[in-house]
Every structure is written in structure tokens, then in C-alpha cells.
Amino acid sequence: MALLELRNLHVALEDGTEIVKGVDLAVNTDEIHAIMGPNGSGKSTLAYALMGHPGYQITDGQILLDGQDVTELGADERAQRGLFLAFQYPHAIPGVTVASFLRTAINAIRKARADGEDDPIPVPEFRKQLMGAMDELKVPRELAQRYINDGFSGGEKKRVEILQMAMLQPRIAVLDETDSGLDIDALKIVAAGVRKLAGPETGTVVITHYQRILNYVEPDYVHVFVNGGIVEEGGPELAHKLEAEGYEGFSPNGGGES
User: Fold this and answer.
1) How remote is the C-alpha of 202 from its chain's centroid?
2) Considering only the top CATH level, what class is 1-42+58-77+174-184+194-202+209-258?
3) CA–CA distance, 34 with 91 (Å, rounded to integer)
4) Mean of the per-residue pLDDT values for the chain?
5) How many Å apart are CA 166 and CA 85, to the nearest integer?
6) Does residue 46 carry a pLDDT above 70?
7) What are phi and psi of 218, to 5 degrees?
8) Other CB atoms within 10 Å distance of the CB of residue 140
9) Residues near 68 by Cβ (< 8 Å), separated by ≥ 6?
10) What is the pTM of this model?
11) Are the C-beta atoms of residues 205 and 174 closer than 8 Å to each other?
12) Domain-by-domain residue ranges, the chain?
């Protein structure tokens, strides 16, 4: 049984417009899956639905995590069970520092895993983990005391997303267009962080429409996503084919929402 399994997943907008049209996908630990498709194909809708965004309605199918159906769970419960989403466009949260946010999130997960009993991480332990992760991922330490993404550059926002992944240690990490808006230096740093965190304890899904991040994070599996569904699957060579030939052969009529 796969760690994460999507079975015939259908997702619609609040107005009933169907965007994701029957997706089957299985992801295990120590695997990197790339979902590649053109803008407007439904990739981000799939990512938000996986995480339980209330603006997207699962109209059919199931999301299974560790064999348990999480389709009806809220975003917080999915996070507590080990699902993580790195946003394409991370929001700023004025008034909440990076350090405070991370400690609160870690404590919420620890409480959920202790059957509702408070089990806060000791401050010295948290600080040691945070500083170590920031140094490893080349995140400037001063960002820890700044408000989340408030005035951050594009590269800083994406590095902090990967920092969250490092600190929360999810079972399944979904990275939605993490390469969007990054220059080559920032891209290399973010990709190096993804490589370090993907491993025996984590399954990783990289959503992108460019092959360039896959030059630094080589996927085990590539899924071509067009018009709300997976239309072809293969190994890393498929990403190179898409880079050379584009999506036109898969999508003569275009896609839906992104």
C-alpha cells in the first residue's frame, strides 16, 4: 500500500466547475514524483485539494494517507497527519515571526500525536533545530525574527517554505511551482534543500511546468498533467522530452483552471 494514494480524484470549484477529472496517483517514501503540465491544466487545484483548501470541493474519489481516508479531514488535520504544501505564491503574515509560526506549528503537531495532550517542544531544542536547519538550507538567520514573507524577496519566500518542510518533517511534501520566480542561484539553493529533505521518511511531489528545477532535483517518476488529468507517465527522460517538445501533443484544446 502506498503512503499517499489518490483514487479517481475529482475536484470542482465552489461554483461546480470541474477542474480535476479523475486522478490516480501513488507516492511512497523515498520517491520524488514530478507532475508537469502547462499553465491552466489544474495542477495547483490538485495541490490545494490535497491539502484541504475549502475553496475546492472533492466531488468524487478518495485521498488515502497511510491507508487511512483523509478526504473529509480539514487542512489542519491533514497537516497533523503529515501532509505539507509549499505554495507557489506564499502569503505574507504581518505580526507573526517565522520562529513563532514554526514553533506553534510544531507544537500543534506534537499535541495531535500525543492524543490531545500538550507536549511543547523545549525552547532550547527548538532553537537548536531551527538554527541548524537555517544554516543547512542557507536561510539567513535574521529571517527567523522577521514577519513571515513580509517584505521577503522571491528567493527568501521559497527558502522559508523549504525551511518549514525541514522543521515539520512531513510524510508527504507537495511543492507547488516552487521554482516560480526564482533566479538560477536561488533555484539551486531551493533544489538542494529539496534533495536533502526527500528521503526514506518522506515522499515528495514536485509540481511544475518547467523542466529546469528537475535538472537539480531528479524525479523518480514524471506524470504529464493536462486538462485536469494525468495523460502520460514515465521516468526522468519524459521531463526532457517535454522540455524539448512542449505540451502541444498532449493538449490540443488547452486546459482548465490552474
Assistant:
1) 12
2) alpha beta
3) 24
4) 92
5) 12
6) yes
7) -75, 120
8) 11
9) 81
10) 0.91
11) yes
12) 1-42+58-77+174-184+194-202+209-258, 83-169
